[in-house]
Amino acid sequence: MSGSAIVRFMHCRQCVQEKRPSLIEAGLTISGFQVWCKRHNREIIHLTSRELEYLLSSQPPCDCCPEGKHLS
């Protein structure tokens, strides 16, 4: 498995209920990272810089880099 393989997916709850594929955008904001549903014009999740740092630091180690975490 590649080190960049997605291990946890996010979907718009409303898209899932409607049995439609999620139509999402993701990116950095001034205060963190946001995932947005374009179809329903609503936020799926917004993580502050602190929450994002915690989430990334709590991921299991990998075996593809010497430090065991993707740092670059």
Description:
By secondary structure, this protein is of the alpha+beta class. It has a domain at 13-57. The chain is 19% helix and 25% strand. The protein is built from two helices and three strands. It has a three-stranded antiparallel sheet with strand order 1-2-3. Strand 2 (32-37) and strand 3 form a beta hairpin. The two termini are 18 Å apart. The model has no long low-confidence stretch (mean pLDDT 83).
Q: Flag low-confidence runs.
A: none
Number of strands: 3
**Helix proportion of residues, in percent?**
10-25%
Mean pLDDT: 83
Rg over alpha carbons = 15 Å
| Count of helical regions | 2
List key phrases describing it.
single chain; 72 residues; alpha+beta; 3-stranded antiparallel beta sheet; 2 helices; 25% strand
Short structural description:
This protein is 19% helix and 25% strand. By secondary structure, the protein is of the alpha+beta class.
Secondary structure elements and pairings:
Layout: H1 13-17, E1 24-28, E2 32-37, E3 42-48, H2 49-57
Antiparallel strand pairs: 1-2, 2-3
